[in-house]
């Protein structure tokens, strides 16, 4: 079972790394999509203690939409380069999401063949590749949902208690996203 999980982790890493390798090989920026730059800029403003009231760089002054992902990005931004985080963090969260999915299926005593195929289909799905290939808030939301479910189903009562605040954090991503 451990060998299967290691294979799935390696497979997820290769799949998640491939969009970055293709961007690198073609000479385009590793950060793509305006959302990556927007999230990076908000996280840098959080780190620098700047105003989070309105966005002055978008051409029109509009209020920021602050979500927990910006604070996650800012926390890691204290230790690492923000540009590097924008393409490394999705890969890390993607791999941990696959591990959590596999462990949740293990808890429900699914056969290892079913777990393996489910994890591989999850990794190969276009939604997974897109979500975990650039800096967006959805990858952290998926990870937090899987983490909350994993903690909730654990035998120890304290883990179930820890999952409750996680569900509360998920709510701050927006009502539509939380559903």
What does this molecule look like?
The protein has 179 residues and is mainly α. The chain has helices at 2-26, 34-48, 68-77, 82-107, 112-124, 126-131, 137-152, 157-171, 175-178; strands spanning 54-55, 62-63. The protein has a two-stranded antiparallel sheet with strand order 1-2. Helix 7 packs antiparallel against helix 8. The radius of gyration is 18 Å and the shape is globular. The two termini are 32 Å apart. 23% of the residues are buried. The mean pLDDT is 87.
Taken in chain order, the helices and strands follow as HHEEHHHHHHH
- Helix proportion of residues, in percent? over 70%
Largest sheet: 2 strands, antiparallel
Q: Round the mean pLDDT to the nearest integer and report it.
A: 87
Radius of gyration: 18 Å
Oligomer: single chain
List the strand order in the largest sheet.
Answer: 1-2
Sheet-strand content, in percent, reads under 5%
Unreliable stretches covering 5 or more consecutive residues: none
Number of strands: 2
> What structural category do the secondary elements indicate?
mainly alpha
Shape descriptor: globular
End-to-end Cα distance, whole Å, is 32 Å
Put simply, the count of helices is 9
Helix-strand blueprint:
Elements: H1 2-26, H2 34-48, E1 54-55, E2 62-63, H3 68-77, H4 82-107, H5 112-124, H6 126-131, H7 137-152, H8 157-171, H9 175-178
Q: What's this, in brief?
A:
This protein has nine helices and two strands; from the N terminus they run ααββααααααα. By secondary structure, the protein is mainly α. α3 crosses α4.
